[in-house]
TrEMBL record:
Gene name as annotated: ilvN
Protein name, entry field: Acetolactate synthase small subunit
Organism whose genome encodes this protein: Aliishimia ponticola
Domain ACT, residue spans: 30-105
Gene Ontology CC annotation, any one: cytosol
Assembly: Dimer of large and small chains.
Length: 186
């Protein structure tokens, strides 16, 4: 009879090891949740996150089917793969939830956000703010002698980059809509 020797430190791979292996690294995920448009549904979804200590980076919600009374909640969150799987499973158990999609793992998606920035400044800083806004294709939606209000749309990373460049030029205030996202293709 022959004995199988396994070196110390090596891992055994078996077709019977059906447990998924997860990482401890936090990942950013965008979840699209289709829910009934009725009072209390958003509170239940948010309660799931707060009750378990999960953070929400971005949250948007709007009715998407008037006749079917359905709304779409887009949530950007972070967590280990185990936490993300828990979130999706727990969302799916809420009675008013029709569908949960993890756009991050289902393939390529398009993410956009709208933000408005109030930037105060004069002289060269004012000219530089206008120059940067032009590069980022931001629109001036309000102007006074002391400030501008810029409107910009794009991926969250673009919004973040614009904010970083506006800070030293007199960024006063920012309002962001949160991420709206759709999967690509059919």
């Amino acid at each position: 009879m022959s004995a199988l020797k396994i070196k110390k430190g090596s891992t055994s791979h078996s077709a019977y090891n059906l447990r998924p292996t997860f990482s401890d690294v936090e990942e950013r995920h965008t979840l699209a949740v289709l829910v009934e448009n009725e009072p209390g549904v958003l509170a239940r979804v948010i309660g799931l996150f707060s009750g378990r200590g999960y953070n929400i980076d971005s949250l948007t919600v709007a009715e998407v089917d008037h006749t079917g009374h359905l709304s779409r909640i887009t949530i950007v969150t972070r967590g280990t793969p185990q936490v993300i799987e828990q979130i999706k499973a727990q969302l799916g158990r809420i009675v008013s939830v029709h569908d949960v999609h993890d756009l991050t793992v289902e393939g390529h998606s398009v993410e956009r956000e709208l933000a408005i920035f109030k930037v105060a400044g004069s002289g060269e800083k004012r000219v530089e703010a206008l120059r940067i806004a032009e590069i980022f294709r931001a629109n001036v939606v309000d102007s006074t002698l002391e400030s501008f209000v810029f409107e910009i749309t794009g991926a969250p990373e673009k919004i973040d980059a614009f904010a970083e460049l506006m800070r030293p030029l007199g960024l006063v205030e920012v309002a962001r809509t949160g991420v709206a996202a759709l999967s690509r293709g059919v």
